[in-house]
Amino acid sequence: QAQLVESGGGSVQAGGSLRLSCADSGYTISSNCIAWFRQAPGKEREGVAAIYAGGGSTTTADAVAGRFTISQDNAKNTVSLQMNSLKAEDTAMYYCAADSTSAARLCWYDFRITGAAAFRYWGKGTQVTVSS
């Protein structure tokens, strides 16, 4: 089973950048639906971006489109989230999540419709704090 470990969080000024990484030591990322979620204090967990590692296609939430990019490195068995032009409202705990799906359309359905409940495997999170 997947064992997900996030890294790369930290504190940054508004307008700055951070790169988060999700390492999977349990099984191969390349055949799965991998997503980044975030949760700010007092708010529900929300999807940020997802990648269907079987084909490399990606999707991002409207709130971060054009600023955040999700990518995979199969050789390192990692999925990264490049975050640019960070805003104070991006402050949250960021989680990596994974599940097995057989097609990209199922990954997008899980990410956009079902949400966090669709993903079986989770990391412990990494904190991102953006100061204005």
Secondary structure layout:
Elements (H helix, E strand, L loop, with lengths): L3 E4 L2 E4 L4 E7 L8 E7 L6 E7 L4 E4 L7 E6 L4 E6 L8 E8 L4 H11 L6 E2 L3 E6 L1
How is this structure best described in words?
By secondary structure, the protein is mainly beta. 8% of the residues lie in helices and 46% in strands. The protein contains one helix and eleven strands. The chain has one helix spanning 104-114, and strands at 4-7, 10-13, 18-24, 33-39, 46-52, 57-60, 68-73, 78-83, 92-99, 121-122, 126-131. Strands 2, 4, 5, 6, 9, 10 and 11 form a seven-stranded mixed β-sheet that branches. The longest helix is centred in the last third of the chain and has 11 residues, at 104-114. The protein is globular, with a radius of gyration of 13 Å. The protein starts with a strand and ends with a strand.
